[in-house]
Write a sequence for this structure.
């Protein structure tokens, strides 16, 4: 067992992949000499050289699309986009090409591409660096959307994603990079199909993912002190959604709170709630509650940003409301 | 001979208007020649023919709208002599623009949408069933004859509801109330707020949600409420095994005020307390089966006058009777401390409440014997809700002078409970069951409950306990005095 | 596609006849599509290549089997000239399972793995990044291949055009950018959309070899493409060809063509690429009118067969609707 940060785990995952498969390469803005905008790829250029650690111009559409083309051409690219807000400059490529080529070609052209990007708020970066738009991407058939929330997943999801014949987007919440955790010395790849129950409980199910997993776990701790036994589910995979794990949990607890840093309207939390209502309506013993970000562009000032984000106290209150 | 047809110029084009002919009969045309102009609703487009030859006949006049595929002209093979005709021989294609061609006298007229089955939405159908209205007698005033809410209200105001299918058929139904508003419309049943799970359970267990008191969010009925109602009509309470939570402040470390210990702590506390009880207290046990026929009939009558939120459940009556009996037999209401009995200053009735996460607590309803029934009911609901939410007050946990364990969802017929030290008695109620019962020399079926008393033999003898049970049975036989 | 065209080394007479055959086949295919669309056999958007045949046929003649193609939604001509079977293209128009995209793409999304045909792309400029990536993969894997990327003059207005020319030039990637300048982005004339209409000059500003070519002359197109492809293949980085051409028909079937002067269309039709080559060959006594008619008849009967097979072909069962959303069998997740 070693203690490792999320950032180091992600870097270890990339180093491992680059060593294991010479078709793998990393491409993105400042991934090389700079070492990655968030320092994730620090040192990789020195180890693997500029052909496999490629600094790109600030041309999101071109280098994301080039990743798609390179995947079509037999490579296994890892494309890094600095933040999810910037990914919108490449949305055409992700949506119109990566997600559709296999289907439009009648199965002839799969796109084995991995795109990593930072998401989320909490670091006072204001409204063009802080949003949680992974729910938008989870809307798109043809993509697999991952949200590692632990060092195990940061270390283990990438390799499995690279083995996937279809495009996989990995959303790394910016507040997690400094998170540290224990990692087994033999830690390796992990499956990328299922949600995980991070804490078992009997009274209420808290569903979350990525950056708000900490919020959910803190809320569960607080609730435990009040005699309420919360189960916490980490979605891990936002598309295809592992609804079975969520629904199994709700069948046990009969109550559901979804915590999602995205905006409530048209969000992933809405999708989770809808599926539970569709498939486990007669298991519900209280209305479903959602704790999401306030519907504002993320503000800069710390107190405003915190007020806009899901907080554990809000989750606790939501649970109190539903246990009566 | 080839045919030139109205072309399709887009997936959304079903018809087009011929604007202009660019050729005349007798004109030679070649494949690809522009021969006409067509208005597609988006634009005027020049259209080409796909055959070579001589224009024979123009079949559609400019200005006519026709469906895609309609033959507009015929083209004869090259070299065919064609008699020039001045005007198109119009009217072979059925134009689209006017109303559809009249149908020839039809022997069997199409029936209009069945007049005796008015159009109804799922919601309206549901309401018709719920209000026991006759769907065929309803007159729809909505669009297309749809039945609206207003139609239902009108119908409810002017016609008596048909008997619900489950109600016994009255041999001589009373004559219908005078029509036209002489009788007010029956109040629509107030909607029951219940969770989906509660509704499912209610259906499975045969519980009428209208008789269940909700303790869930915003007073909604939740699953536990239904389970409780299904067994005895009581709120969710004790476990069948006589395990009891401490009434003194939790013996395992000082629990934060209002927060009963949880999980393993809770279990350990119960274990310690119950072991102490069985080690120290020489228990004796008495039981008595009590006829609840009068009590339940009285309660139902009473409930008819009460809004759903204030309706009584049988547990309220049982608790009240237990409290009143404790006033009458004060030797059972108090504590065994330092080798002697100390009577309680009032009857603070402990009520065992099972918790969602397992375990139970038995907080007190203070001065229970003096509370009117509906006040006792409200206190009970409040207490259960707060016990579940972990918001009990310290005094509620430490004050009980005698405790009642009311078997709820587990539904055993009787319970012989373990006394909470330092109390000296525990009252138990089993499930309410229908049993053959002799009344005035005749066998009838009556709802009965097995009441039990566990007594501390150090403080009292069996005779005292028996007196307590008899008093309680008497109280339950005269519920109006409770 | 015949081996004579692909190799480009055949005896000149045979080679010219092959070019003529390819162009005429595209022309007749497109005309058949108009007819079938008018009869509601083909649906969706239909963009015709009539007038531009010399571009696709000339460029394809300069490519090899190892090269890759990325193109636009006006791509029937590219697909046919590249060697995608006419039956598969026509069946795709019909939305049949025997179509080259199993009926999932239609006119705008023809794909064919066997000929490295990476698709018609219906987003203007959307194919350029794919071409850059395919070329990047070839470069990293040491393949001596060219990726030919077709797009129209409209794409020059897209950011992706500039991003991709820069990136390909920066990384010296083997892309042959083929800009089909037919002067109109749908209804918007180039001069109404671009401050500088010299597209080759603008491409050249990214540091790559760029030339303007007469896109109505298939021999000129082939010669320029051959030269550019050879340079690209040799590792000297990407090249750019501005192929000046014209579409004789409207943008799509639903386009009333109000934005062009009929005299302008007539003027361009005088330089019809099919006629231009045929007349030259007749003048050079390489072809008789009778041979031309016979060639046309052969093409016509082959198209009859393609249409008949498309008519008769089965459709994909609706139960397979969600196949190919993801690679795993069973389809959507």
């Amino acid at each position: 067992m070693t203690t490792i940060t999320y950032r180091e785990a992600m870097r270890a995952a990339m180093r491992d992949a680059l060593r294991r498969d010479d078709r793998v390469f990393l491409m993105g803005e400042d991934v090389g000499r700079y070492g990655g905008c968030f320092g994730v790829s620090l040192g990789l250029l020195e180890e693997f050289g500029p052909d496999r650690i490629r600094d790109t111009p600030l041309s999101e559409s071109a280098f994301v699309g080039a990743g798609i083309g390179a995947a079509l051409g037999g490579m296994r690219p890892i494309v890094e986009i600095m933040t999810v807000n910037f990914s919108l400059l490449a949305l055409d490529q992700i949506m119109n090409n990566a997600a559709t080529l296999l289907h439009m070609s009648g199965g002839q052209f799969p796109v084995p591409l991995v795109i990593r990007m930072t998401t989320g708020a909490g670091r006072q970066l204001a409204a063009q660096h802080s949003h949680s738009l992974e729910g938008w991407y989870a809307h798109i058939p043809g993509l697999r959307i991952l949200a590692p929330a632990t060092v195990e997943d940061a270390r283990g999801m990438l390799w499995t994603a690279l083995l996937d014949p279809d495009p996989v987007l990995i959303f790394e919440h910016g507040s997690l990079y400094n998170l540290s955790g224990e990692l087994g010395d033999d830690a390796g790849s992990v499956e990328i199909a299922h949600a995980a129950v991070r804490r078992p409980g009997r009274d209420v199910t808290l569903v979350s993912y990525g950056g708000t997993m900490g919020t959910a776990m803190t809320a569960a701790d607080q609730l435990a002190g009040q005699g309420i036994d919360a189960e916490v589910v980490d979605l891990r995979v936002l598309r295809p959604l592992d609804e079975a794990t969520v629904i199994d949990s709700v069948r046990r607890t009969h109550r559901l709170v979804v915590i999602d840093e995205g905006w409530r309207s048209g969000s992933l939390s809405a999708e989770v709630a809808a599926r539970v209502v569709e498939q486990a309506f007669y298991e519900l013993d209280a209305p479903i509650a959602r704790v999401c970000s306030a519907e504002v562009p993320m503000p800069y000032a710390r107190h405003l940003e915190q007020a806009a984000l899901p907080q554990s106290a809000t989750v606790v209150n939501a649970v109190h409301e539903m246990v009566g | 001979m080839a045919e030139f047809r109205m072309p399709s110029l887009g997936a959304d084009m079903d018809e087009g208007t011929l604007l202009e002919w660019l050729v005349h009969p007798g004109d030679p045309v070649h494949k690809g020649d522009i021969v006409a102009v067509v208005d597609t609703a988006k634009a005027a487009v020049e259209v080409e023919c796909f055959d070579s030859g001589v224009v024979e006949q123009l079949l559609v006049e400019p200005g006519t709208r026709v469906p895609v595929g309609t033959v507009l002209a015929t083209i004869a093979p090259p070299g065919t002599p064609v008699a020039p005709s001045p005007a198109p021989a119009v009217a072979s294609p059925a134009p689209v623009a006017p109303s559809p061609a009249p149908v020839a006298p039809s022997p069997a007229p199409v029936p209009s949408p069945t007049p005796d089955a008015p159009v109804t939405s799922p919601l309206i159908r549901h309401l018709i069933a719920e209000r026991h209205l006759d769907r065929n007698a309803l007159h729809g005033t909505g669009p297309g004859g749809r039945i609206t809410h207003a139609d239902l209200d009108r119908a409810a105001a002017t016609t008596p509801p048909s008997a619900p299918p489950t109600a016994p058929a009255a041999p001589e139904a009373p004559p219908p109330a005078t029509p036209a508003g002489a009788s007010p419309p029956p109040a629509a049943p107030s909607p029951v707020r219940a969770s989906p799970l509660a509704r499912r359970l209610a259906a499975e267990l045969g519980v009428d949600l209208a008789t269940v008191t909700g303790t869930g969010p915003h007073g909604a009925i939740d699953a536990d409420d239904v389970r409780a109602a299904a067994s005895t009509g009581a709120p969710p309470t004790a476990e069948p095994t006589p395990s009891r939570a401490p009434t003194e402040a939790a013996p395992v470390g000082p629990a934060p005020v209002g927060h009963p210990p949880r999980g393993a702590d809770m279990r350990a506390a119960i274990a310690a307390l119950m072991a102490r009880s069985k080690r120290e207290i020489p228990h004796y046990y008495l039981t008595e089966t009590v006829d609840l026929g009068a009590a339940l009939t009285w309660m139902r009558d009473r409930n008819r006058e009460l809004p759903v939120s204030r309706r009584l459940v049988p547990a309220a009556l049982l608790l009240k009777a237990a409290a009143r009996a404790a006033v009458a037999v004060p030797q059972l209401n108090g504590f065994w401390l330092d080798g002697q009995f100390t009577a309680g200053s009032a009857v603070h009735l402990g009520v065992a409440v099972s918790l969602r996460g397992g375990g139970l607590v038995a907080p007190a309803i203070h001065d229970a014997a003096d509370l009117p029934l509906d006040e006792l009911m409200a206190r009970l609901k409040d207490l259960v809700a707060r016990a579940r939410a972990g918001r009990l007050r310290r005094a509620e946990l430490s004050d009980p002078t005698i405790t009642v364990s009311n078997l709820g969802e587990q539904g055993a017929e009787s319970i012989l409970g373990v006394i909470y030290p330092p109390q000296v008695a525990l009252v138990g109620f089993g499930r309410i069951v229908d049993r053959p019962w002799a009344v005035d020399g005749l066998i009838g079926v009556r709802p009965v409950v097995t009441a039990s008393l566990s007594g501390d033999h150090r403080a009292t003898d069996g005779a005292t306990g028996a007196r307590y049970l008899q008093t309680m049975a008497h109280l339950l036989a005269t519920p109006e005095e409770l | 596609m015949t081996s004579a065209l692909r190799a480009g080394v055949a005896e000149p007479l045979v080679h010219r006849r092959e070019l003529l055959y390819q162009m005429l086949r595209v022309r007749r295919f497109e005309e058949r599509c108009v007819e079938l669309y008018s009869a509601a056999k083909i649906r969706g958007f239909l963009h015709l290549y009539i007038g531009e045949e010399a571009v696709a046929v000339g460029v394809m003649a300069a490519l090899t089997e190892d090269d890759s193609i990325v193109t636009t939604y006006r791509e029937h001509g590219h697909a046919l000239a590249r060697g995608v079977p006419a039956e598969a293209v026509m069946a795709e128009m019909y939305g049949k399972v025997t179509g080259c995209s199993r009926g999932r793409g239609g006119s705008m999304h023809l794909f064919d793995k066997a000929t490295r045909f990476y698709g018609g792309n219906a987003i203007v400029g959307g194919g350029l990044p794919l071409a850059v990536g395919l070329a990047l993969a070839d470069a990293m894997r040491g393949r001596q291949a060219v990726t030919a990327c077709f797009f129209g003059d409209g794409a020059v207005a897209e950011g992706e055009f500039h991003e991709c020319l820069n990136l390909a030039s920066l990384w010296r990637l083997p892309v042959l950018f083929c800009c089909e300048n037919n002067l109109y982005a749908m209804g918007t004339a180039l001069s109404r959309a671009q401050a500088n209409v010299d597209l080759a000059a603008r491409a050249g500003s990214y540091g790559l070899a760029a030339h303007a070519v007469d896109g109505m002359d298939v021999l000129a197109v082939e010669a320029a493409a051959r030269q550019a492809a050879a340079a690209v293949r040799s590792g000297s980085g990407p090249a750019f060809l501005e192929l000046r051409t014209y579409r004789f028909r409207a943008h799509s079937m639903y386009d009333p063509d109000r934005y062009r002067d009929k005299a302008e269309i007539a003027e361009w039709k005088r330089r019809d690429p099919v006629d231009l080559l045929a007349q030259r060959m007749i003048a050079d006594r390489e072809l008789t009118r009778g041979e031309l008619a016979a060639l046309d008849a052969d093409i016509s009967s082959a198209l009859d067969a393609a249409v008949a097979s498309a008519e008769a072909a089965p459709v994909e069962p609706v139960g397979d609707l969600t196949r190919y959303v993801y690679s795993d069998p069973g389809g959507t997740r």
In short: Chain B has a mean pLDDT of 76. Residues 232 and 432 of chain B are 5 Å apart (CA to CA).
